[in-house]
């Protein structure tokens, strides 16, 4: 009687073990297919430097939407602050 129950226990364990191995094998096959598809996509893509150059040229031609656009100085007297020294002697600022 014990030999019959032990044989049933072994066959149940064998089928669970086979199922576990089969499930792991299917998962690995699926992962391999996913990686193969990803490699195919990478082979079809342009090189990164070409894509970066294209994006950079598009970004540089468009103004920044967060910065206000001005067509010139609103007050001409403000220009003197941003143009630098006007005299040949340079800036007469004293830093202590």
UniProtKB/TrEMBL annotation:
Its main location: membrane. It is found in: Cell membrane. It comes from the Eukaryota. Residues 22-96 form the G protein gamma domain. Keywords: Cell membrane, Coiled coil, Membrane, Transducer. GO terms for cellular component: plasma membrane. One of its GO terms (biological process) is G protein-coupled receptor signaling pathway. InterPro entries: G-protein_gamma-like_dom (IPR015898), GG1/2 (IPR045878). Residues 13-22 have a biased composition (Basic and acidic residues). Residues 67-76 have a biased composition (Low complexity). Residues 1-22, 59-81 are annotated as: Disordered. This is G protein gamma domain-containing protein. It comes from Coffea canephora. The lineage of its organism: Eukaryota, Viridiplantae, Streptophyta, Embryophyta, Tracheophyta.
